[in-house]
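This part of the workshop introduces the protein records we will be handling. An example says more than a description, so a record of this kind follows:
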Amino acid sequence: MICLRHNTNMKFYLLWVEEDLLGEWSFCKLTGSGRKSERKLSICCNNHIEANQMLNDLEYQLRQKGFVYFDGIDDMTYNYNIS
């Protein structure tokens, strides 16, 4: 799982790849901010390579926009008041 946040606008992204019980791969992202509720998007992919490529592409785009890595749920609870 990749955890990214933007320090000025308080947005965050959690990105991951998962395989379901039927062996199908998905790229998943959870987005939100301190002011809005979270949104989850899951995109079905043909294989794990395609899912990982989607994850890497979005990670690169977000890093170019000023997003930085953070520690995940514990850090989100403290900084974003998410329970």
Q: What stands out?
A: The beta strands are 2-5, 11-19, 25-33, 39-45, 68-69.
